[in-house]
């Protein structure tokens, strides 16, 4: 009888894990009651606009919800910030940060306004537009990107996930498991 119970329990656990994993961005884990729980990965990015109180080592972010969050921007150390695309008052930003004592520290600051626009390389020519839309300018391109979003400081183009290594006025460096991809801005 015990064998049937354990075999049944293991089958339910395995089927539950398969069910969780087949839905994409979910993972299965056992909790302390030995039941399988499906848990979705959450986006920790805070979105908003760069405020007038922004300076060399501080960022004032006016969130989409209307709140104002002040972040410390460290140059070095464990709490150092990576600012991609610059900081200009009024630009749309995506911020990944953490709290130490009662202070907010930015880890990644991505200027979405700078990210938007026309980008080109040897094999791709695309435009990142507002609202998560990507427009391809090469008709014969296989698997053109059609949508984008920021998720936990990474750039998602369709199902491709990239770390943004550099974002400047005229250059964009993206990296994933396949390598580093360099794009220049078309004007």
Protein model, in words:
With 187 residues, this protein is mostly beta strands. It has 3 domains: 2-40, no CATH class; 46-112, Beta Barrel (OB fold (Dihydrolipoamide Acetyltransferase, E2P)), CATH 2.40.50; 116-185. It is 13% helix and 48% strand. The chain is built from 2 helices and 16 strands. The chain has helices at residues 2-21, 112-115; strands at 26-30, 36-40, 46-50, 58-63, 68-72, 82-84, 92-100, 103-111, 117-120, 125-129, 133-136, 148-151, 154-157, 160-167, 171-176, 179-185. The strands form 3 sheets. It has an 8-stranded antiparallel beta sheet with strand order 11-10-9-16-15-14-13-12. The chain has a 5-stranded mixed barrel with strand order 3-4-5-8-7. Strands 1-2 form a two-stranded antiparallel sheet. A hairpin with a 5-residue loop joins strand 1 (26-30) and strand 2 (36-40). It starts with a helix and ends with a strand. Keywords: Signal. Residues 1-22 form the signal peptide.
- Number of helical segments? 2
Rg of Cα set:
21 Å
Poorly predicted runs are 1-39
Structure summary, number of beta strands: 16
- Cα distance spanning the termini: 73 Å
Q: Indicate the mean pLDDT.
A: 82
Largest sheet: 8 strands, antiparallel
Question: Strand order across the biggest sheet?
Answer: 11-10-9-16-15-14-13-12
Proportion in β-strands: over 45%
Oligomer: single chain
Helix content: 10-25%
Query: What is the 3D shape?
Result: elongated
Order of helices and strands: HEEEEEEEEHEEEEEEEE
Keywords: Signal
Protein name: Lipoprotein
Signal peptide: 1-22
């Amino acid at each position: 009888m015990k064998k049937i119970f354990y075999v049944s329990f293991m089958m339910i656990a395995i089927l539950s894990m398969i069910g969780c994993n087949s839905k994409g961005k979910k993972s299965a884990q056992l909790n302390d009651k030995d039941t399988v729980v499906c848990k979705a990965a959450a986006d920790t990015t805070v979105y908003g606009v760069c405020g007038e109180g922004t300076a060399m080592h501080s960022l004032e972010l006016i969130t989409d919800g209307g709140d104002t969050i002040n972040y410390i921007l460290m140059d070095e150390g464990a709490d150092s910030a990576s600012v991609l695309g610059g900081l200009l008052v009024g630009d749309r930003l995506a911020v990944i940060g953490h709290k130490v004592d009662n202070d907010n520290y930015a880890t990644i600051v991505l200027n979405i306004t700078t990210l938007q626009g026309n980008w080109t390389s040897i094999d791709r020519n695309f435009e990142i537009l507002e609202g998560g839309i990507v427009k391809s300018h090469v008709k014969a391109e296989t698997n053109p990107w059609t949508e984008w979003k920021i998720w936990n400081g990474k750039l998602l183009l369709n199902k491709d996930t990239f770390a943004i290594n550099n974002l400047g006025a005229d250059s964009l460096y993206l990296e994933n498991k396949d390598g580093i991809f360099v794009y220049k801005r078309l004007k």
